[in-house]
Specification:
Metallo-beta-lactamase, Chain A, alpha/beta, binds zinc ion, Rossmann fold, 8-stranded mixed sheet, 7-stranded mixed sheet, 15 helices
């Protein structure tokens, strides 16, 4: 699509060819441009523009998987904003999941702007930057619920609930109007760790001068309401009570609430508990440092010592729920883990969901575990996992509270985006627009209007650590296969 003619005056002369055609945001408008995460689940990268300036909201990764075996990690190509870096006021992070901050250390040198995050997210961002040898990034640690000024944007952090500490929605305000960017969320009345959501603040959003709500679509195809994290304690406890041998539970490392639940289950049945796997050990350390690990839990048993405990007295949480090749559980299944060996009669619980695309490695892992005589329980067998995203009834509730004049679904494949759009329509949201990565949108009184498309490629990390563009043909092939 070619760019329509707009008012002259805001164009910069040193922009790259594709970016030169795009006028900068003017003082009377808010632009929205997703470069990643809209049309796919993963690698979120959103841009908001106003009065000649831009902010990035989230900067995440996705995994190459079987479509791109040459790249472990992939991310949105930030070319559009890198070409106008002098207009980039900051990177605002909603939460610490890899699909929201994983690309920070890979891309920061191309962007060189201040970073804003709440304490838990900031701790993980700091770790990533340090590991990449970046010591000159300015990282502002923002208190929960704070409002900050980033360029011409006033950004209020509004705490929600999800599957990691400190998930934040953002109310992004400008003199031309405001946008409610939900980030990843669910409505959990008992999230186990961290604050509850603030229903009153969310209901008060309808009185803000909103232009649009940009909303998580991950579970828009799921009926009902997403369950509470607290509802997992009893079913997990029952499973562990019945187990005669060793118990190993794999889950997402970042789900601190799940790890706390597992620690409480172990405590309640008299088993000693520890976590195994680098990512999980780091997450517990960050949770402790930021006050999310309860003081009343027994000391964790070091991974090196767990294997020496009698099988019926120990319980471990570990990485590997997606069959990741170097993870703790994959090593245990291959009988090559340094600390823990599995025997016939042991129990392995997958307190997780299988991320689409990981079917083969996860199935392989099940097969290997069963070949060892291990009992495998997944979320298909028992209530051992709950999502962090809103199902249809939750979306309806939030739309009813906020009553936005317009909705732009994000964080989903086209099917998820359309499902979310249908729900918004049912909830009498006057204007709903399904867009995709690269669509430059004007959020306004009659919009959202798509003004045109900008380049939206992907970058991949090579085995030697270099970040390289993924050829357009390869992406086109992947998209065609996904349809
Ligand atoms: Zn998330
Ligand atoms: Zn996400």
């Amino acid at each position: 699509m070619s760019m329509p003619t707009r008012k002259p005056g805001a164009m910069s002369s040193d922009l790259s060819l594709q970016a030169r055609a795009v006028p900068d945001a003017e003082a009377d408008e808010v632009l929205f441009l997703p470069l990643g995460g809209t049309g796919e689940i993963g690698m979120n990268l959103n841009l908001y523009g106003h009065d000649g300036a831009w902010i990035i909201v989230d900067i995440g990764i996705t995994f190459g998987g079987e479509a791109f075996p040459e790249h472990d990690v992939m991310m949105a190509d930030p070319e559009f904003i890198a070409a106008r870096r002098e207009r980039l006021a900051g990177i605002v992070l909603t939460h610490a999941h890899e699909d929201h901050l994983g690309a920070l250390a890979y891309l920061w040198k191309r962007l060189r702007c201040p970073i804003y995050a709440t304490p838990f997210t900031a701790a993980l961002a700091r770790h990533k930057l340090a590991r990449a040898g970046i010591d000159d990034a300015t990282l502002h640690e923002i208190p929960l619920g704070a409002r900050i000024e980033v360029g011409p944007f006033s950004v209020e952090y509004i705490g929600l609930t999800h599957s990691i500490p400190e998930p934040n929605a953002l109310l992004i305000s400008t003199p031309a109007g405001a946008v409610f960017h939900t980030g990843d969320w669910k409505l959990d009345d008992d999230p186990v760790v961290g604050q509850r959501y603030d229903a009153r603040r969310l209901q008060a959003l309808r009185r803000e001068p909103l232009l649009a709500m940009v909303c998580d679509s991950t579970n828009a195809v799921v009926d009902g309401s997403t369950g509470s994290e607290a509802g997992l304690f009893e079913p997990l406890r029952e499973l562990v009570l019945e187990a005669a041998g060793r118990v190993v539970v794999t889950s997402f490392a970042s789900n601190v609430a799940r790890l706390v639940t597992l620690a409480r289950v172990a405590q309640s049945v008299g088993r000693r508990f520890g976590v195994v796997g680098q990512a999980m050990e780091r997450m517990v350390a960050v949770a402790r440092a930021t006050g999310y690990w309860p003081d009343d839990l027994p000391e964790l048993v070091d991974a090196r010592h767990l294997g020496y405990l009698p099988r019926e007295e120990s319980m471990a949480a570990c990485t590997g729920s997606q069959g990741e090749p170097r993870s703790a559980l994959v090593r245990m299944a291959a009988d090559s883990h340094r600390d823990i060996l599995l025997d016939p009669g042991d129990l392995v619980v997958f307190s997780s969901r299988m991320i689409p695309g990981n079917e083969r490695p996860v199935e392989r892992l099940y097969t290997r575990l069963r070949a060892l005589g291990v009992e495998v329980v997944t979320d298909a067998d028992a209530h051992v996992h709950v999502s962090g995203h809103p199902a249809r009834d939750d979306l309806r509730r939030l739309y009813d509270w906020v009553q936005p004049p317009a909705v732009v679904p994000v964080h989903g494949t086209p099917r998820h985006l359309r499902a979310n759009a249908d729900i918004a329509g049912e909830c009498h949201v006057p204007r709903v627009r399904v867009i995709e990565n690269g669509d430059l949108c004007r959020l306004g009184a009659d919009g959202p209007d798509v003004l045109g498309r900008v380049h939206n490629g992907r970058l991949g990390v090579n085995t030697d650590g270099r970040v390289v563009p993924v050829p357009a043909q390869a992406l086109a092939k992947m998209r065609a296969a996904a349809c």
